[in-house]
Amino acid sequence: MEDRKFAPIDENQGGTAIASEPKRLRKRTKTFTDVMLSVQDLHVSFKTFGGEVQALRGVSFNLYKGETLAIVGESGCGKSVTANTIMGLIPKPAGRIKNGKVLFKGKDLTKLDKSEMRKVQGVDISMIFQDPMTALNPTLKIGEQLTEGLRTHQKVSKAEAREKAIKLLEVVGIPNPEERMKQYPHQFSGGMRQRIVIAIALICEPELLIADEPTTALDVTIQAQILELFEEIQERTGVSIILITHDLGVVAKIADRIAVMYAGKVIEIGDKREVFYTPQHPYTNGLLASVPRLDLKEEELQPIEGTPPDLFSPPNGCPFTARCPFAMEVCERVYPATTGLSETHAVDCWLQDERAKQVIGHN
Amino acid sequence: MAIYIVKRFFMMIATILIIATLTFFLMHSIPGSPFDEERTSNPTIQANLEKFYKLDQPTHVQYAHYLKSIATFDFGPSIKKPNESVNKLLARGFPISFELGMVTILVAVISGITLGTFAALRHNGIIDYAAMAFAVVGISVPNFVLATVLIQQVAVNWNLLPPATWSSPLHMILPTLALATGPTAIIARLTRSSMLEVLTQDYMKMARAKGLSPMRIVLRHALRNALMPIVTIMGTMLAGILTGTFVIEKIFAIPGMGKYFVESINNRDYPVIMGSTVFYSAFLVFMLFLVDIVYGFLDPRIKLHRKEGDA
To answer: Is A350 within a domain?
Structure first.
């Protein structure tokens, strides 16, 4: 009985191991110890006409001071909702935090009222949005958009704020910042606008920067520049970054740790190298395998077959069961417990159970 | 900017000229003459009168004379009230109509935008439903019906406000209310829908993420973007309100331009018709010009002129 329960449903599909070569990843040997942000068992739902969407179904992770944590996953997995919840931007009353905590330096942000939250927004935590073409107000000069946050939160004169903004524009690489302060967003290119958005996010010197797909809307050459800018800023200020993306190339470049989300849960989290080289969840596996590679002469992409589950009525068991090549009977019924593989690496998968067959093996 | 204004100025003159020409020929194509009613006058007197007002001359000569009067802005005496010049009539009547129109516009814009903004901020809430119910009623009820109801209820039955004439701020309340309700409703609906759209924009989310005060978010970030469609309809709305004053003036016995305007058409009082039409169209064309200028201030992406180096 036990054996049968833990046997793979289709053994033919099993056993495709997926260790890719550690080649292009840069080595980073920083260690992070101070927990700055701790998200604990976060549940967020949205009421819609069709019913209640359970966007987050128990998200937990820690963020350390000075690190870059990448949250990856396909569309609709809850990456952006996680970011918006931390930032206090969940539209109410449609969206509701049903359970869980967001502890920022020990303070639970979900318990703050609107005016208390405003003292955190843009001051302690800043956000960078996906599309720089729409994130800036078209009718206001960028000088005003840069300084208004500073002037709201700190007692600084107009001249001081201006001076700081000009310096910051220089930092993010805008030429002629003094002149540019007087211009409107439409007078800037996409890459320039994203630099301005980043400058706006940095103006109050936040400790945490949440970047929601900051390079998705930019073309590839600009992407690299923006990512370099992130690294530079982190080196300069020691800011922690949560980087939300579905672009694994971006992750490889600047992340320290990676959290993989699927159907409103963090299914695997670990050091970048651990997740890239020894992924333990079949979904992470599939995600990495689906990245087009220049070094292999394969014409076709290798997508993960199927679609994520409907979050109106999410399954009881592991949400990846229906798409998982190693799915077992138990997967469908019970959600797996989190297994710690190392100090940093953890995964939610039944394959980690000692009774399961070894299918992903590179131990 | 200067180039744009000069260009617009010439276009405005051309527009006024076309309106003036159309009015002239339309008016002359209507049968009848200013002297139809006076049956007692004998043919000699009639002929002399026509000669005095140059009505005996061929149409093209009259037209030339009329153009000259526009250029010099002197429309001569009224036919029906020979001791009054058209300029005098305008000087007496227009300020009152203008006052009514401007107060109405002011009331409509301020209350309409406020109502629409609150409706959008409380989307699908009680304020929203109440505001939109008001808007539907406001758009559907014609102002002359509203005017009579207001006079009956507020002035006659409750005796709260004077029912007619135009002599104190209190006298202004009812006519303004009657005239402003429709435009208020239109502006409220428009503000609401454009505000709802603006509120979902990324830059609004960004403004919230900056931790700005809700007041600043709405006034500085949302409203300015949401006002564009309202500025767009302001031009035509202005025309509607200015001509709408004619009816309201009649109901409330306000001595504005409306009375002279309607009377002059009934009497074929050519100089008054021409003078007031040209004056009104000039005024409207100028207002539309102002609207376009405001546009450029509200949205920096709209360029009123081409700068060198711009694509």
So the answer is: yes
**What pLDDT, on a 0 to 100 scale, did the predictor assign at position A17?**
40
Residue A348's pLDDT band (cuts 50, 70, 90): very high
- Per-residue pLDDT, A133: 87
Range of the domain at A66: 1-116+245-363
Whether A83 is covered by a domain: the verdict is yes
Longest distance between any two alpha carbons in chain A, whole Å: 76
**Given an 8 Å threshold on Cβ–Cβ distance, is B206 in contact with A135?**
yes
The pair of structure tokens assigned to A101 is 């905590």
Contact between A117 and B203 (Cβ < 8 Å): no
pLDDT digits (tens, 9 = 90+) for B278-297: 888 888 888 888 888 888 77
Q: How many CB atoms lie within 10 A of CB B215?
A: 8
Query: Rounded to 5 degrees, what angle do the CA atoms B200, B202, B205 make?
Result: 80
| Rounded CA separation A206/B243 (Å) | 57
CATH number at residue A249: 3.40.50.300
* pLDDT tens per residue, range B218-249: 999 999 899 988 988 888 888 788 877 888 88
pLDDT at B218: 92
Contact list in B for residue A148 (CB cut-off 8 A) is 210, 212, 216, 220
Q: Please, what are the averages of pLDDT over each run of 10 residues along chain B (311 residues)?
A: 83 90 86 67 75 78 85 80 82 88 93 94 90 93 91 89 84 91 94 94 92 91 90 83 83 85 81 85 86 81 56 37
Is A137 part of the contact surface with chain B (CB cutoff 8 Å)? yes
- Average pLDDT for A249-256: 88
Tell me how far apart the alpha carbons of residues B93 and A204 are, in angstroms, rounded to a whole number.
59
CA distance A84 to A222: 25
Minimal C-alpha gap between B214 and chain A (Å) = 10
Q: What is the pTM of this model?
A: 0.79
Structural domain includes residue A1: yes
Min distance A73 CA to chain B CA atoms (Å):
22
Q: Any idea what DSSP says for residue B221? A: I
Sheet with A338-340: list strands edge to edge.
Answer: A125-128, A208-212, A240-245, A68-72, A257-262, A265-271, A346-348, A338-340
User: What ipTM score was computed for the predicted complex, to two decimals?
Assistant: 0.81
| C-beta of residue A126 within 8 angstroms of C-beta of residue A201 | yes
The CA distance from A138 to B203, in Å, is 9
Give the CA radius of gyration of chain B. 24
Which residues does residue A8 pair with via DSSP β-bridges, in sequence order?
A328
Q: What is the pLDDT of residue A2?
A: 43
Whole-number Cα distances in Å, B166 to A117, A324, B84, B99, B177: 54, 82, 22, 10, 14
Cβ–Cβ contact A200 with B under 8 A: yes
Cα(A131)–Cα(A194) distance, integer angstroms: 8
How far from A77 is each of A266, B88, B194, CA to CA, in Å? 9, 75, 31
Residue A93: is the preceding peptide bond cis (ω within 30°)?
A: yes
Strand partners, A68: A241
- B167, containing H or E segment: none
Domains annotated on chain B, with CATH: 100-259 (1.10.3720.10)
Amino acid present at B242: L
Contact list, B213 vs chain A (CB under 8 Å)? 118, 152
